[in-house]
Amino acid sequence: MRKVLIFLSLITLINSPSLAQQSRKLFRVGVAGLTHGHVHWILNRAHDGDIEIVGIAESDRVLAEQLLNQYKLPLSLLHTSLEVMLEKTTPEAVTAFGNTFDHLAVVKACAPRGVHVMVEKPLAVSLDHAKQIQQLAAKHAVHVLTNYETTWYGSNLKLEELFMKTQTYGPIRKMVIHDGHQGPKEIGVGKEFLTWLVDPVKNGGGALMDFGCYGANLSTWLMNGKRPRSVVAITQQIKPDIYPLVEDEATIIVTYANTQTIIQASWNWPFGRKDIEVYGARGYAIADRQGSRVKAKENEPEEFFSAPVLEKPFHDPFAYLAAVVRKEIKVAPTDLSALENNMIVMEILDAAKQSAKEGRVIFLKENRK
Questions:
Q1: Which DSSP symbol is given to 111?
Q2: Dist. CA 178–CA 218, nearest whole Å
Q3: What is the DSSP string of 137-154?
Q4: Which pLDDT belongs to residue 24?
């Protein structure tokens, strides 16, 4: 009887979550900035048992204490500068949750130390900043990944199947991508977030940068990393009383040799949306977080496929970051998070801003890399 009890005890220990977690070293991550509203994403993951937030760099003490208390994290994690946090905590990677202008500064601090970086979308405020980030990543052999909410939608698998792997619906002819919401002030984002979202320097623009990047990212992925031939954009200030310094409405048309992408980025939707329509030569798919509506024959109804749960580590930005840094998976240049993809995204956004300002089509030169 005693042997049976000992055996059962061993089985219990082997199958216990705590032992399983201990067998894999926690991924050590630092957080640079807390003013981005998406920071709740990583703070909410702090106690999940696969990552360890080893340090947080934030100069706004009031905001930092509020968030640390909310997520039951010790104040000892807080540092007033990124450099101090890096020296004292030696993270494997840093996630940037400050304003977009500061992304370059984060990479400048991390890359020479061999620390990998994941920034919130978009990669940078400008193509110039993006090129500097690319040079730093190459020089110091670090990953710089960009995190988009839409990267983790299970419905992407259906798009990949129909238009990339099997091309069941034929080559893509047109994409229409809608992203945005009623406006950051209207939906009640935090003051610390709103302050820089509506700043043309710290955000690089308004709705065009905030939501145009999603469409540019998905279009680049579905086009297998092809660079567009041209970009044209129109922006508006529909609510100049609320957003006097930046546009709140943007439409971007991106053309390829045989494909056109229309990106509709807006702070004027009646409610939040992130969805994509992809039209091929032999069918179409309309996808969002919930799933995909597909249609291949004119006289037959659409078929709906619920979005599946993505397999680990492709289900979550921080699990993905850990797997990349630890060389468990490789990042393909066309991947949604990849630096190469997001350099093309920045080309599109840069051209869109220039087009809206000058009122003309911008042709992307072949040597703009």
A1: G
A2: 11
A3: HHHHT--EEEE-GGGG-T
A4: 67
User: What is residue 295's predicted lDDT score, i.e. its pLDDT?
Assistant: 97
Where do the structural domains in the chain lie, given as residue ranges? 23-150, 153-312+334-363
Q: What is the pLDDT of residue 23?
A: 53
| Residue pair 29/92 in contact by the 8 Å Cβ criterion | yes
pTM for the whole thing? 0.92
Residues 6+ apart with CB under 8 A from 232: 252, 253, 352, 355, 360, 361, 362
Lateral strand order in the sheet of 283-287:
303-306, 291-295, 283-287, 273-280, 172-180, 260-266, 249-255, 230-236, 362-363
- The CATH architecture one would assign to domain 23-150 is 3-Layer(aba) Sandwich (3.40)
Place of tokens 């990677």: 93
Spans of the chain, pLDDT less than 50 = 1-22, 366-369
C-alpha separations of 170 from 57, 165, 284, 337 in Å: 48, 11, 9, 25
pLDDT tens for residues 54-77? 999 999 999 999 999 999 999 999
Closest CA to 125 of 149, 107, 150: 107
Kindly report the CATH number that applies to the domain delimited by 153-312+334-363: 3.30.360.10
- The single-letter DSSP state of residue 61 is H
Query: What secondary structure does DSSP assign to 36-51, as a single string?
Result: STTHHHHHTTTTSSSE
